[in-house]
Amino acid sequence: MPNIVFTPQDMLIKTNLHDRPLYYTGYIGDVKVDRMHIDPGSSISIIPKGLLHHLRIPMHRLTPTSTAISGFNSGRSYPIGKIRLKCQIGDLQSEVTCYVIDTDTSYNILLGRPWIHDYMIVPSKLHQYFKYVDKHGFVKTEFTDIDPFKGVESYYSDSCLYEKSKRHLDEGNKQANTETATGSEEPLRSTSKLANREGPHPLLPLCGKTRSASRRGKSR
Length: 220
Known about the structure:
Layout (H helix, E strand, L loop, with lengths): L21 E7 L2 E8 L6 E4 H6 L14 E2 L5 E2 L3 E9 L2 E10 L7 E3 L1 H6 L3 E3 L4 E5 L5 E5 L13 H26 L8 H6 L9 E5 H9 L1
Parallel strand pairs: 2-8, 3-7
Antiparallel strand pairs: 1-2, 1-6, 2-12, 4-5, 6-7, 9-10, 10-11
């Protein structure tokens, strides 16, 4: 297996003075979904019931479960069921077993340790990306969304972490541009592409367009 290495030069934000989690935009089935949270601290993967409605997944597809979810205050809650879903982030295609909760959350899906270990993913919140080895033996890197809340007013605590570190991100981009101009360092290949890409609508948990619908729009 090839070595997976993290270096200071690869940091999406050129400072360690941030507390950003790992949020991605990807696909569940054929539907584009934002705020996909990769969390090594969670022992299960979770999806809120509201997102299943947007995905048009009927409740009868859920499998009963007796698993209890423990919160930070040691309180217990019980999911209404679990479901196996197809999930894609960047080039990584995967399947994940999610426990369904009837609660509002800052994320649209939380991908926990079982999913992380199944696909031998090595995440770094500090660097703001994860790495993994694909089926051909190559190390792949997937950078996070720079602004998963899309600048819309949000009462979730996670959104504050992006406002706090925006200044450091801007400074890091200026530094990277300077280094590229002088030729002193190789620029980050994936950062600018992610920074400029169009994400799902900020007021909805997903954009509501499937991949097939996007293709039809391009062919017109």
